[in-house]
Fold:
Amino acid sequence: MLGTRLLHSVSYAGFWGQDALDVSAFVDHAADLGYGGVMLMAKRPHVSPLDFDTAQRAALRAQLDKRGLRDLVVAGYTNLTADLEHAEIPHREFQIAYIVELAKLTRDLGGERLRIFTGYENAAAPYSAQWKLIVETLREAAGRAGDLGVTLGVQNHHDIAVGWQQFEDLLLAVSHPHCQAMFDAWAPALHGADLAESARCLAPLTIHTTVADYQLRPRYRYNPALVNYEPGTPLVQAVPMGEGFIDYRTFLSGLAEGGSHASVAYEMCSPILGGGARRNLDLYAERFLEFMQGLQ
Structure:
């Protein structure tokens, strides 16, 4: 059986023109909506390590405890293949240092799980070199995070290892107890992969998953020479849970059947249908809880 339902603070961060809450107001709002935990965005305007000193971290941890939001994931924003064009700049060290700071933030807030990404494919280096860089960086970062009592959860988001089979290969190559999967359905659904198979295979490694539902909007470009339209890549439009093309019932059931006890976070991480007014954001957040209740 899967674990706690979390709300991702990026949903109320003000990006994409939606209404915004500061992190303290967000925590109270998530509790009022009925969530059992939160996923906190570790960048401005929410919980940047640059802005949250020891006292602020203690105050936020106390608020989380008071509101009963003890299941916590901190969401980091890494790109382990950044700026490979300039080999003299120690970007690997920059990224590891950032992850260590995020691990300290996670620990200080009472959490044990930190979400990170792999890297966007970079034309400045061969794919095999980027793969090796990411494996070695994750292994070192996982060791340092583990010393702080924190486990890294890699989300299948960036280009390197975004296909689920390669994602599994990557985690097995890293082979560190403090580097696990935060495997999501979004990417494999867009790839046309088998969600049941991918979920069952990744379940033993998956400690958390983040969900959002989408519909595909066809796009076309007019070709005057043909007096006709040429198809383009479809637009992905966020919609309420259960109204999109991603078969979350199959995916989440696959995780559970495979033995995962992952927590499940809901996010609004792009423009949503109906606009970004607070009431619409809340309707989406409430619909997720209703959807998950229907799976039990």
